[in-house]
Amino acid sequence: MPESPKNRTLGFAACTIASSLWGCGFFFGKIALVEMGVGSMVLYRFLFATLVLLPLLFTHKPGLNRREWGILLLCAFLGIPLQFLFQFTGLSLTTVSHASLMVGTMPVFLAVAATLFAHERMDATGWFALVVSTLGAALIALGARETTHGAGGPTLAGDMFVVVSLLIALGWVMLNKRLMERHSAIVVSAYGTACGTAMLLVCVPLIYGPPPVHHISLKAWLALAASGLLCTATTTLLWNWGLTQVPASQAGVLLNMEPLIGSILGVFVLHESLGPTARTGGALILASAILITTRSRTRTREQLPCT
């Protein structure tokens, strides 16, 4: 059966928007964590996301066989309870800037994983853009750290929790990509999110106790709703669809939009100063995103000529 034509431009645009919205996740998460614990915050975030995606469960039949349901459930477990509980435990122990720095390593992990497991081979331009983009993420986070003082600073434990969550996220990305070879991004996103949320409903009360309902401010509820709608439901749909149009190794570079957006939120919302180091990092990220979307080409190993 012939493959459907790919749209690189729209694919990169979808991944860029998804990464940019993910950049708001730590910001909204910090707001909610002031009034509740990690488990409750993650649970409410995904309940809002599932509420948004619920109509898709009625309009799109899954059509998965038994083996594919197993992959979907494993993917949901890795991508939702395990990844997010680790990641936001890390955020509760470190700063937003340090968490962003750790997220800046994700494109490297993803490019290596795509090369090893997804039969992708990125060209020299793509690898160069990857390095430049990761350097830009590091500069942004270091620039934000330079302006952070007082209590609530970064910790090694918090940073390591975030790194572990990124390694877990690799499994989510690669398994999603495999499922979307036969099923639509809408099906994989909607049913995966719903299954992961059901897992949270079981494990969060057991591990963290019942989530609070009363005495939560409107500000926290709005942050949770924004996290669910913008940073979870929308991003999952856009990212998964984008992966059907462009190689995972190239899309990974665009994940470094996340620390860029986090810095912008810090400047314009939290009134933090953005020094020359962070401004340079932002320029490097934007330059690498333009470079990889216009100049780089990635081929699968099956497409490479035999020698």
What's the main sheet like? 2 strands, antiparallel
Strand arrangement, major sheet: 1-2
Class based on secondary structure composition and strand pairing? mainly alpha
Order of helices and strands: HHHHHHEHHHHHHHE
The count of β-strands is: 2
Number of helices: 13
Report helical residue fraction: over 70%
Walk me through the structure.
The protein has helices at 8-22, 25-33, 38-59, 66-93, 96-103, 106-117, 124-146, 156-179, 185-208, 218-243, 248-253, 257-268, 276-294, and strands spanning 120-122, 298-300. It is mostly helical and 307 residues long.
Features:
disordered C terminus; two-stranded antiparallel sheet; 2% strand; 307 residues; 13 helices; single chain; mainly alpha
Reconstruct the topology from this structure.
Layout (H helix, E strand, L loop, with lengths): L7 H15 L2 H9 L4 H22 L6 H28 L2 H8 L2 H12 L2 E3 L1 H23 L9 H24 L5 H24 L9 H26 L4 H6 L3 H12 L7 H19 L3 E3 L7
Antiparallel strand pairs: 1-2
Brief overview, please?
74% of the residues lie in helices and 2% in strands. By secondary structure, it is mostly helical.
